[in-house]
Amino acid sequence: MNTQDIAGALWQAMEDGRHMPSEWAGKFSLQQGYEVQLALLHRRLARGERQTGWKVGLTAEAMRVQQQVHEPCFGYLLESGRHASGQAYRFSELIAPGFENELCLTIGKTLRGPGVSLEEVAAAVTHAAPALEIVEVRGPFAGNLALAMADNAQQKAYVTGAAVPLTADNRDLAGANVTVQVDGAVSETASGSAVMQGGGLLSVLWLANKLAEFGLALEAGMQVMSGSFTRQYRASQGMRVHSSFDRFGTVAANFI
């Protein structure tokens, strides 16, 4: 079955409230999973949605080993999923939700691969904002990576604080740290070096060159959720999250 046929079937299943339908598990490759994801994105754009950027996932080596993949993964971000710090989500309207602690990076100059260099990335990324990615576990991720990519890599929404211009003093994203508070108590402190074993600019480097495989550029003005400093947290009703990134400020969200 071709990509458009798969996309049509998965689109109809989502319209019916069924995500990652089990009958499609193992039926197509990871490469085709990305192609289906992009075909579904085009359907959303045709329906009036607006793309704001991309997410990079599986940025931790341990996660890639666990999932038996050799590289990170990507998904798309939509305007309808972009929220300011302090956003309250209705827990009952989400599917097995969770969150990750990330930096949201702004691309100031289009990066078109293949062959994008780290120096080009460093010159193109203009701002970083403290961020939470809101994810949904809409089906089993392990062992169903192709289907998970077609379903946009668990992406649901993202929350950002104020964007901070990158300068010589803060451009080393690996040197940033986050302190995560859940319901008023410190849960964890983690380093940006956990992202791609060297910081979020490496996520942008990977993404720009990966998108080239699908004939796409990382366009100026796009935002990139560059990967979590921490493990993925499961959310619960009533949970309050407040994450503080040194050099970049704070971001908060609630699940009501």
TrEMBL record:
One of its GO terms (molecular function) is 2-oxopent-4-enoate hydratase activity. This is 2-keto-4-pentenoate hydratase. It comes from the Bacteria. InterPro entries: Fumarylacetoacetase_C_sf, Hydratase-Decarb/MhpD_sf. Transmembrane segments: none annotated. PANTHER family: 2-KETO-4-PENTENOATE HYDRATASE (PTHR30143:SF0), ACID HYDRATASE (PTHR30143). Gene3D superfamilies: Fumarylacetoacetase-like, C-terminal domain. GO terms for cellular component: cytoplasm. The lineage of its organism: Bacteria, Pseudomonadati, Pseudomonadota, Betaproteobacteria, Burkholderiales.
